[in-house]
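Notebook B, p. 112. Complex prediction, attempt 2.
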Amino acid sequence: MQKYDYIITGTGASGLMLAYHMVIDPFFDKKQILLIDKEIKNKNDRTWCFWEEGKGVWDTVVSKKWNHIFFGSQSFSDTIDISPYQYKLIRSKDFYEFIFARLQEKSNITIVQENLIGFVDEGDIVEVETDQRIYLGDKIFNSVLLSKEFKTQQKYPLLNQHFIGWFIKSETPIFEKETATFMDFTVDQLGNTRFMYLLPTSETEALFEYTLFSKDLLSKSEYEKGIKAYLDSKGIKEYQITEKEKGCIPMTCYEFRKQNSKNILHIGTAGGWTKPSTGFTFHNSDKRVGKLVKFLKKNNDLSKFEKRNKFWYYDLLLLDLLSKENQHGAALFSRLFRRNKTIKILRFLDEETSFIEDVRIMSTMPIKKFLKMIWERVLK
Ligand SMILES: Cc1cc2nc3c(=O)[nH]c(=O)nc-3n(C[C@H](O)[C@H](O)[C@H](O)COP(=O)(O)OP(=O)(O)OC[C@H]3O[C@@H](n4cnc5c(N)ncnc54)[C@H](O)[C@@H]3O)c2cc1C
């Protein structure tokens, strides 16, 4: 039976990013790499956005960039210039096509369409089971959320960033195409943290996503009612829905990294690469993959790759608070944007701020509420 050097399970965002970084690096030319996914990834199944300074690896597939974002709420609204950052949009179909074209040029890459059942680290080899056969590999990078422990455990709260989005086309130019609406909390909160996310790709086309950070999902009609009400409030009456998308991204400080072993590394959302307090995953995965390919050149023990950092504690406090007082999300985020420079917030969310900068940002938040959360966490 052939043994692979690396097996990547799941060819979504993180699996493909890793495969791409491997094929553009000659270090991996002699490595046999197997990619497994149950689907053929050729649909536009998600729209990824992230902020980035200057040029980035994925610029070839970025289809829209904004220099301004809008933050809105009852107490504070502003259109903000985010330079030196740009907010970038990638349609997943473009991303998949671009990477698969590169992978197909390489003879050391094998891609199979099979359903992953499980895998086990046998110490010096990993056995990967699909619905078709067993594969052997030295190392596996898994992005398939097979374990549901993050949902059943009680130690860390689990919120979801959940939404339905409509791609809308209008006959007449109605969208301000130079500004992406990052969060608009002026929608009825109904006891939750609810906001509209709006990405205008031209004067006549935009994606509207009715989004919540909360525990429980809504019925389809509730999200759609939210989008309709928002369109109505903006006087947008004549439009066509050209595409729809929906998502549910787990927001949790559950320690996915504890499932890693010497030869198994969980990546992407399955590896805890989703920022717990925001649901943003794409850019974080990109940064982690960059570190990972460097790590692989020097290290053999994958369990040493992930470490907990100070941002994990900050995320935990915010999630503790949002899960207990979900109705206060709008006030919390408004306060954050009103009292801090947006580029500082973006840097903080990117986990690139110093401790002094963290303290400055946190001092603008409701201290008493956060101290209460710390105290309750300590008692736990
Ligand atoms: C609609 C949507 C929009 C999003 N927008 C953003 C955004 O704007 N910015 C951002 O930072 N994040 C965003 N996210 C969050 C995150 O970036 C994406 O979910 C991202 O795709 C996660 O990458 P991943 O590799 O962890 O998982 P995925 O991309 O979901 O890849 C997992 C892969 O595993 C495969 N798979 C699943 N089960 C099996 C099985 N049993 N056997 C074999 N293969 C299997 C799937 O087919 C899939 O290809 C969004 C998520 C969604 C759902």
